[in-house]
Amino acid sequence: MRFFVNPAPLPSPARVLATLDDRPWSREELIELPSGERRVRKTGLAPGPWGVHSVRAETHYLLNLRPGAAEHFPPVRAAWGLDHTATETGYERETATCWRSAAEWVAREALLQGQADRLQDDLAEALFNHLQQPESPRPALAAHLEDALSQILAQLGHAPQTAPLAHAAEVLVNGRPVDGLLRSLHKLLARGEPARSLGRVPHVLLHGNLTLEHILWREDARAGAEARPTDWAGRPRLLFSSPVSEAGIALGPALFDQVRYEFSAGGERFALAQGLVEALPEGDSASLLQFRFRIRWEDPSMRPFRLVDLRRRVRGAFAARHGEMPLALQRLLEAYFLLTEAVHAPAERRLAYALKAAEALHDA
Fold first, then answer.
1. Which of 25, 131, 173, 281 could form a disulfide with 51 if both were Cys (CB 3.0 to 4.6 A apart)?
2. Which pLDDT value is given to residue 166?
3. Phi and psi torsions of 180, nearest 5°
Protein backbone atom coordinates (compact mmCIF):
# COMPACT_ATOMS: atom_id res chain seq x y z
CA MET A 1 0.00 0.00 0.00
CA ARG A 2 1.35 3.43 -0.90
CA PHE A 3 2.12 5.69 2.06
CA PHE A 4 0.50 9.10 1.50
CA VAL A 5 1.51 12.30 3.30
CA ASN A 6 0.46 15.89 2.77
CA PRO A 7 3.31 17.62 0.93
CA ALA A 8 5.14 20.37 2.82
CA PRO A 9 4.38 23.86 1.42
CA LEU A 10 8.02 25.02 1.28
CA PRO A 11 11.33 23.69 -0.02
CA SER A 12 13.14 21.56 2.57
CA PRO A 13 16.43 22.62 4.19
CA ALA A 14 18.88 20.47 2.26
CA ARG A 15 22.24 20.38 0.56
CA VAL A 16 22.56 19.80 -3.17
CA LEU A 17 24.42 16.59 -4.00
CA ALA A 18 24.19 16.83 -7.78
CA THR A 19 22.51 18.80 -10.53
CA LEU A 20 20.58 16.32 -12.67
CA ASP A 21 19.26 18.75 -15.29
CA ASP A 22 19.97 22.47 -15.63
CA ARG A 23 18.15 24.55 -18.24
CA PRO A 24 17.45 28.27 -18.48
CA TRP A 25 13.83 27.67 -17.45
CA SER A 26 14.08 24.84 -14.89
CA ARG A 27 16.52 22.91 -12.72
CA GLU A 28 16.45 19.38 -11.31
CA GLU A 29 18.71 18.47 -8.39
CA LEU A 30 19.46 15.55 -6.11
CA ILE A 31 19.29 16.89 -2.54
CA GLU A 32 19.96 15.46 0.92
CA LEU A 33 18.00 16.51 4.02
CA PRO A 34 19.64 16.77 7.48
CA SER A 35 18.03 13.41 8.30
CA GLY A 36 19.98 11.79 5.47
CA GLU A 37 16.88 11.33 3.30
CA ARG A 38 17.53 12.00 -0.37
CA ARG A 39 15.04 13.57 -2.73
CA VAL A 40 14.83 14.99 -6.23
CA ARG A 41 13.92 18.68 -6.32
CA LYS A 42 12.58 20.25 -9.51
CA THR A 43 12.21 24.02 -9.72
CA GLY A 44 10.70 26.25 -12.41
CA LEU A 45 12.92 29.31 -12.73
CA ALA A 46 11.57 31.43 -15.57
CA PRO A 47 8.13 32.55 -16.75
CA GLY A 48 6.66 31.08 -19.90
CA PRO A 49 5.55 27.67 -21.16
CA TRP A 50 8.78 25.78 -20.32
CA GLY A 51 9.50 27.26 -16.90
CA VAL A 52 7.19 28.03 -14.01
CA HIS A 53 4.07 27.10 -15.98
CA SER A 54 5.45 23.67 -16.95
CA VAL A 55 6.68 22.75 -13.45
CA ARG A 56 3.42 23.97 -11.90
CA ALA A 57 1.44 21.77 -14.32
CA GLU A 58 3.67 18.80 -13.50
CA THR A 59 3.19 19.34 -9.76
CA HIS A 60 -0.60 19.60 -10.06
CA TYR A 61 -0.57 16.42 -12.16
CA LEU A 62 1.34 14.47 -9.50
CA LEU A 63 -0.81 15.74 -6.62
CA ASN A 64 -4.09 14.86 -8.37
CA LEU A 65 -3.42 11.38 -9.70
CA ARG A 66 -5.95 8.63 -9.06
CA PRO A 67 -4.67 6.07 -6.51
CA GLY A 68 -4.06 3.34 -9.10
CA ALA A 69 -1.97 5.68 -11.23
CA ALA A 70 -0.25 7.37 -8.28
CA GLU A 71 1.34 4.04 -7.29
CA HIS A 72 3.50 4.32 -10.41
CA PHE A 73 5.14 7.64 -9.49
CA PRO A 74 7.58 8.47 -6.66
CA PRO A 75 5.58 10.33 -3.97
CA VAL A 76 5.69 14.13 -3.74
CA ARG A 77 6.98 15.25 -0.31
CA ALA A 78 6.98 19.04 -0.79
CA ALA A 79 5.33 21.44 -3.26
CA TRP A 80 5.38 25.24 -3.34
CA GLY A 81 4.52 28.20 -5.55
CA LEU A 82 1.37 26.59 -6.99
CA ASP A 83 -0.70 29.77 -7.18
CA HIS A 84 -0.55 31.61 -10.49
CA THR A 85 1.11 34.70 -9.00
CA ALA A 86 4.24 32.83 -7.91
CA THR A 87 7.38 33.53 -9.92
CA GLU A 88 9.01 30.30 -8.78
CA THR A 89 7.42 26.91 -8.31
CA GLY A 90 8.69 23.44 -7.59
CA TYR A 91 8.32 20.11 -5.86
CA GLU A 92 10.38 17.44 -4.12
CA ARG A 93 9.82 13.74 -4.70
CA GLU A 94 11.29 10.63 -3.21
CA THR A 95 14.29 9.16 -4.97
CA ALA A 96 13.73 5.74 -6.50
CA THR A 97 16.90 4.11 -5.20
CA CYS A 98 16.02 0.56 -6.24
CA TRP A 99 15.15 1.60 -9.78
CA ARG A 100 17.22 2.67 -12.79
CA SER A 101 15.90 4.49 -15.83
CA ALA A 102 15.28 2.45 -18.95
CA ALA A 103 17.74 4.78 -20.70
CA GLU A 104 20.45 3.70 -18.24
CA TRP A 105 19.66 0.01 -18.64
CA VAL A 106 19.93 0.41 -22.41
CA ALA A 107 23.11 2.50 -22.34
CA ARG A 108 24.82 -0.07 -20.10
CA GLU A 109 23.80 -2.85 -22.52
CA ALA A 110 22.36 -4.56 -19.45
CA LEU A 111 19.28 -6.03 -21.16
CA LEU A 112 18.93 -9.26 -23.07
CA GLN A 113 15.86 -9.48 -25.28
CA GLY A 114 13.93 -11.47 -22.68
CA GLN A 115 14.60 -8.76 -20.12
CA ALA A 116 13.63 -6.06 -22.62
CA ASP A 117 10.38 -7.96 -23.16
CA ARG A 118 9.69 -8.00 -19.41
CA LEU A 119 10.34 -4.27 -19.20
CA GLN A 120 7.85 -3.68 -22.03
CA ASP A 121 5.25 -5.92 -20.38
CA ASP A 122 5.61 -3.97 -17.11
CA LEU A 123 5.38 -0.70 -19.03
CA ALA A 124 2.23 -1.80 -20.84
CA GLU A 125 0.66 -2.93 -17.55
CA ALA A 126 1.38 0.39 -15.85
CA LEU A 127 0.48 2.55 -18.84
CA PHE A 128 -2.65 0.90 -20.22
CA ASN A 129 -4.15 -0.59 -17.05
CA HIS A 130 -3.37 2.11 -14.49
CA LEU A 131 -2.34 5.47 -15.93
CA GLN A 132 -4.24 6.01 -19.17
CA GLN A 133 -7.79 6.26 -17.85
CA PRO A 134 -10.53 7.77 -20.10
CA GLU A 135 -10.96 11.55 -20.17
CA SER A 136 -13.34 13.85 -22.03
CA PRO A 137 -11.87 15.12 -25.34
CA ARG A 138 -10.79 18.75 -25.23
CA PRO A 139 -9.98 21.05 -28.19
CA ALA A 140 -6.88 22.48 -26.51
CA LEU A 141 -4.53 19.83 -27.90
CA ALA A 142 -5.55 20.42 -31.52
CA ALA A 143 -5.14 24.17 -31.09
CA HIS A 144 -1.74 23.66 -29.48
CA LEU A 145 -0.49 21.39 -32.28
CA GLU A 146 -1.61 23.85 -34.93
CA ASP A 147 -0.02 26.82 -33.14
CA ALA A 148 3.20 24.98 -32.32
CA LEU A 149 3.71 23.68 -35.85
CA SER A 150 2.98 27.09 -37.35
CA GLN A 151 5.36 28.92 -35.02
CA ILE A 152 8.20 26.41 -35.31
CA LEU A 153 8.00 26.26 -39.09
CA ALA A 154 8.04 30.05 -39.22
CA GLN A 155 11.28 29.96 -37.20
CA LEU A 156 12.80 27.29 -39.44
CA GLY A 157 11.75 29.31 -42.46
CA HIS A 158 14.05 32.13 -41.32
CA ALA A 159 17.06 29.92 -40.48
CA PRO A 160 19.65 29.54 -43.26
CA GLN A 161 20.05 25.78 -42.78
CA THR A 162 16.34 24.97 -42.98
CA ALA A 163 14.76 27.82 -44.97
CA PRO A 164 15.07 26.07 -48.38
CA LEU A 165 13.32 22.96 -47.00
CA ALA A 166 10.63 25.07 -45.32
CA HIS A 167 9.74 27.19 -48.36
CA ALA A 168 10.17 24.71 -51.23
CA ALA A 169 7.02 23.38 -52.88
CA GLU A 170 8.63 19.95 -53.21
CA VAL A 171 12.01 18.38 -52.47
CA LEU A 172 13.66 14.98 -52.76
CA VAL A 173 14.67 13.26 -49.51
CA ASN A 174 16.75 10.15 -50.23
CA GLY A 175 15.23 10.25 -53.71
CA ARG A 176 11.64 10.40 -52.48
CA PRO A 177 9.45 13.38 -53.51
CA VAL A 178 8.23 15.17 -50.37
CA ASP A 179 6.33 18.45 -49.97
CA GLY A 180 8.18 21.32 -48.36
CA LEU A 181 7.42 21.87 -44.68
CA LEU A 182 5.15 24.90 -45.03
CA ARG A 183 3.29 23.42 -47.99
CA SER A 184 2.57 20.23 -46.00
CA LEU A 185 1.29 22.29 -43.08
CA HIS A 186 -0.98 24.37 -45.32
CA LYS A 187 -2.47 21.17 -46.80
CA LEU A 188 -3.10 19.78 -43.31
CA LEU A 189 -4.84 22.93 -42.12
CA ALA A 190 -6.95 23.08 -45.29
CA ARG A 191 -8.25 19.56 -44.48
CA GLY A 192 -9.24 20.63 -40.97
CA GLU A 193 -6.35 18.86 -39.31
CA PRO A 194 -5.30 18.18 -36.65
CA ALA A 195 -8.71 18.81 -35.06
CA ARG A 196 -10.51 16.31 -37.32
CA SER A 197 -8.22 13.35 -36.54
CA LEU A 198 -8.03 14.14 -32.83
CA GLY A 199 -11.81 14.30 -32.63
CA ARG A 200 -12.10 10.73 -33.88
CA VAL A 201 -10.05 8.99 -31.19
CA PRO A 202 -10.71 8.52 -27.47
CA HIS A 203 -8.77 10.71 -25.04
CA VAL A 204 -7.04 9.53 -21.87
CA LEU A 205 -4.84 10.84 -19.09
CA LEU A 206 -1.36 10.86 -20.63
CA HIS A 207 2.10 10.69 -19.20
CA GLY A 208 2.93 13.38 -21.75
CA ASN A 209 6.72 12.98 -21.71
CA LEU A 210 7.19 9.24 -22.11
CA THR A 211 10.85 8.71 -22.97
CA LEU A 212 13.31 6.07 -21.77
CA GLU A 213 14.74 8.58 -19.28
CA HIS A 214 11.35 8.87 -17.55
CA ILE A 215 10.68 5.12 -17.14
CA LEU A 216 12.22 3.63 -13.98
CA TRP A 217 12.57 -0.16 -13.77
CA ARG A 218 13.45 -2.07 -10.63
CA GLU A 219 16.70 -4.01 -10.40
CA ASP A 220 15.12 -7.28 -9.28
CA ALA A 221 12.77 -7.17 -12.29
CA ARG A 222 15.73 -7.06 -14.69
CA ALA A 223 17.39 -9.90 -12.80
CA GLY A 224 14.33 -12.07 -13.38
CA ALA A 225 13.33 -12.48 -9.76
CA GLU A 226 9.91 -14.02 -9.28
CA ALA A 227 8.16 -10.93 -7.95
CA ARG A 228 4.57 -9.85 -8.26
CA PRO A 229 4.00 -6.35 -9.76
CA THR A 230 3.38 -4.90 -6.29
CA ASP A 231 6.26 -6.55 -4.38
CA TRP A 232 9.24 -4.73 -2.81
CA ALA A 233 7.89 -2.45 -0.09
CA GLY A 234 4.52 -2.25 -1.79
CA ARG A 235 5.91 -0.56 -4.90
CA PRO A 236 5.44 -1.71 -8.50
CA ARG A 237 8.34 -2.96 -10.59
CA LEU A 238 8.03 0.05 -12.87
CA LEU A 239 7.67 3.73 -12.01
CA PHE A 240 7.31 6.87 -14.10
CA SER A 241 8.95 10.25 -13.55
CA SER A 242 8.74 13.78 -15.01
CA PRO A 243 5.20 13.64 -16.46
CA VAL A 244 3.48 16.35 -18.54
CA SER A 245 5.07 17.63 -21.72
CA GLU A 246 7.02 20.88 -21.61
CA ALA A 247 4.02 22.49 -23.31
CA GLY A 248 1.75 21.28 -20.49
CA ILE A 249 0.05 18.42 -22.37
CA ALA A 250 -1.38 15.70 -20.11
CA LEU A 251 -4.67 14.81 -21.86
CA GLY A 252 -5.07 13.45 -25.36
CA PRO A 253 -5.10 10.28 -27.44
CA ALA A 254 -3.09 7.34 -26.11
CA LEU A 255 -1.21 7.53 -29.40
CA PHE A 256 0.54 10.67 -28.09
CA ASP A 257 2.40 8.64 -25.44
CA GLN A 258 2.95 5.73 -27.83
CA VAL A 259 4.60 7.83 -30.53
CA ARG A 260 6.74 9.65 -27.98
CA TYR A 261 7.88 6.35 -26.47
CA GLU A 262 8.71 4.72 -29.81
CA PHE A 263 10.70 7.75 -30.94
CA SER A 264 12.85 7.32 -27.83
CA ALA A 265 12.95 3.52 -27.58
CA GLY A 266 13.96 2.97 -31.19
CA GLY A 267 17.10 5.09 -30.91
CA GLU A 268 16.12 7.82 -33.39
CA ARG A 269 15.77 10.47 -30.68
CA PHE A 270 19.20 9.61 -29.25
CA ALA A 271 20.83 9.65 -32.68
CA LEU A 272 19.41 13.06 -33.55
CA ALA A 273 20.30 14.58 -30.18
CA GLN A 274 23.88 13.27 -30.38
CA GLY A 275 24.38 14.24 -34.02
CA LEU A 276 24.82 10.60 -35.10
CA VAL A 277 23.20 11.33 -38.45
CA GLU A 278 24.06 12.51 -41.94
CA ALA A 279 21.80 15.30 -43.18
CA LEU A 280 23.09 17.04 -46.28
CA PRO A 281 21.81 18.99 -49.27
CA GLU A 282 22.84 17.35 -52.54
CA GLY A 283 22.05 20.02 -55.12
CA ASP A 284 19.18 20.13 -57.61
CA SER A 285 17.56 17.44 -59.74
CA ALA A 286 15.09 18.53 -62.40
CA SER A 287 14.62 21.82 -60.51
CA LEU A 288 13.99 20.02 -57.17
CA LEU A 289 16.23 20.41 -54.13
CA GLN A 290 17.74 17.11 -53.03
CA PHE A 291 18.65 16.05 -49.49
CA ARG A 292 20.27 12.95 -48.07
CA PHE A 293 19.48 11.69 -44.56
CA ARG A 294 20.54 8.62 -42.63
CA ILE A 295 21.19 7.54 -39.06
CA ARG A 296 24.70 6.21 -38.48
CA TRP A 297 23.56 2.92 -37.00
CA GLU A 298 27.10 1.57 -37.34
CA ASP A 299 28.38 4.08 -34.76
CA PRO A 300 29.39 2.33 -31.50
CA SER A 301 27.08 4.66 -29.55
CA MET A 302 24.08 3.18 -31.39
CA ARG A 303 25.01 -0.41 -30.49
CA PRO A 304 22.63 -0.59 -27.47
CA PHE A 305 19.65 0.08 -29.75
CA ARG A 306 20.78 -2.62 -32.19
CA LEU A 307 20.97 -5.27 -29.47
CA VAL A 308 17.34 -5.31 -28.27
CA ASP A 309 13.89 -4.38 -29.56
CA LEU A 310 12.14 -2.12 -27.05
CA ARG A 311 9.06 -1.38 -29.15
CA ARG A 312 7.44 -4.56 -30.44
CA ARG A 313 5.67 -5.77 -27.30
CA VAL A 314 4.46 -2.32 -26.24
CA ARG A 315 3.13 -1.75 -29.75
CA GLY A 316 1.31 -5.08 -29.58
CA ALA A 317 -0.22 -4.18 -26.22
CA PHE A 318 -1.27 -0.79 -27.62
CA ALA A 319 -3.00 -2.49 -30.57
CA ALA A 320 -4.76 -4.95 -28.24
CA ARG A 321 -6.13 -2.07 -26.15
CA HIS A 322 -6.72 0.70 -28.72
CA GLY A 323 -6.54 -0.95 -32.14
CA GLU A 324 -4.00 -0.31 -34.85
CA MET A 325 -2.35 3.10 -34.83
CA PRO A 326 -3.94 5.50 -37.36
CA LEU A 327 -1.02 6.21 -39.68
CA ALA A 328 -1.84 9.82 -40.54
CA LEU A 329 -2.18 10.89 -36.89
CA GLN A 330 0.89 8.87 -35.96
CA ARG A 331 2.95 10.69 -38.58
CA LEU A 332 1.54 14.07 -37.53
CA LEU A 333 2.60 13.45 -33.93
CA GLU A 334 6.03 12.26 -35.08
CA ALA A 335 6.46 15.54 -36.94
CA TYR A 336 5.37 17.49 -33.87
CA PHE A 337 7.91 15.78 -31.60
CA LEU A 338 10.69 16.19 -34.16
CA LEU A 339 9.99 19.89 -34.64
CA THR A 340 9.62 20.71 -30.94
CA GLU A 341 13.02 19.14 -30.32
CA ALA A 342 14.51 20.84 -33.37
CA VAL A 343 14.00 24.33 -31.95
CA HIS A 344 16.09 23.42 -28.87
CA ALA A 345 18.82 21.68 -30.88
CA PRO A 346 22.08 23.36 -31.93
CA ALA A 347 21.67 25.15 -35.26
CA GLU A 348 23.92 22.70 -37.11
CA ARG A 349 21.65 19.76 -36.16
CA ARG A 350 18.28 21.26 -37.04
CA LEU A 351 18.33 20.18 -40.68
CA ALA A 352 18.31 16.52 -39.61
CA TYR A 353 15.20 17.01 -37.48
CA ALA A 354 13.56 19.06 -40.23
CA LEU A 355 14.18 16.40 -42.90
CA LYS A 356 12.59 13.69 -40.75
CA ALA A 357 9.70 16.04 -39.95
CA ALA A 358 9.21 16.84 -43.65
CA GLU A 359 8.73 13.15 -44.43
CA ALA A 360 6.34 12.72 -41.51
CA LEU A 361 4.23 15.80 -42.36
CA HIS A 362 4.03 14.69 -45.98
CA ASP A 363 2.49 11.39 -44.84
CA ALA A 364 0.13 12.94 -42.27
1. 25
2. 97
3. -60, 160
Euclidean distance between CA atoms 199 and 136, whole angstroms: 11
Written as one letter, the residue type at 256 is: F
Kindly report the average pLDDT of the chain as a whole number: 90
Looking at residue 300, its amino acid is P
- Per the CB < 8 A criterion, the answer to whether 38 and 44 are in contact is no
Chain Cα centroid distance, residue 274: 16
pLDDT computed for residue 49 by the predictor: 63
Instruction: Write out the H or E segment, with its range, that includes residue 252.
Output: strand 251-253
* Torsion of the alpha carbons at 224, 105, 332 and 169, rounded to the nearest 10: -140
Distance CA 77, CA 97 (A): 16
User: Which amino acid is located at 61 in the chain?
Assistant: Y
DSSP-based helix, strand, coil % in the chain, nearest 5: 45, 20, 35
Distance, CA of 341 to CA of 264 (rounded, Å): 12
Dist. CA 3–CA 265, nearest whole Å = 32
